[in-house]
Write a structure and sequence with these properties.
Mean pLDDT: 96
Number of strands: 0
Number of helices: 5
Structural class: mainly alpha
């Protein structure tokens, strides 16, 4: 499955009662909310000696992915294009791969 395949499949569950601006805000706010849920799981694992349940993480990552896909769609962006642009940025930023030195020296 490509990102664009996922984005199209996930879009069938978007709230059709919302207009374009409302969809954008709903999806972006959902992305922040789901990211907070992921952070909460990781924080509890790191600082409260709780196990890190891969199945729960998978569910929360899926929710965050849905929100990301719908935010991008609402902004007129295809996830495949978003992913390709991000990889191009990372290659330009870290042509030899990540290093602390390269991170300190990068300009953007």
């Amino acid at each position: 499955m490509t990102f664009d395949d996922y984005q199209a499949a996930a879009a069938r569950t978007i709230n059709s009662a919302l207009d374009g601006k409302e969809r954008l805000l709903d999806a972006a706010a959902g992305l922040a909310e789901e990211s907070g849920e992921i952070l909460g799981l990781v924080r509890k694992h790191a600082f409260q000696s709780r196990g890190l349940d891969p199945e729960t993480l998978k569910i929360e990552f899926g929710d965050a992915l849905w929100c990301l896909a719908m935010t991008a769609k609402s902004a007129g962006l295809a996830l495949d294009d978003v992913a390709a642009a991000n990889v191009a940025k990372l290659v330009a930023r870290y042509p030899q791969g990540y290093s602390d030195e390269a991170s300190r020296e990068r300009r953007a």
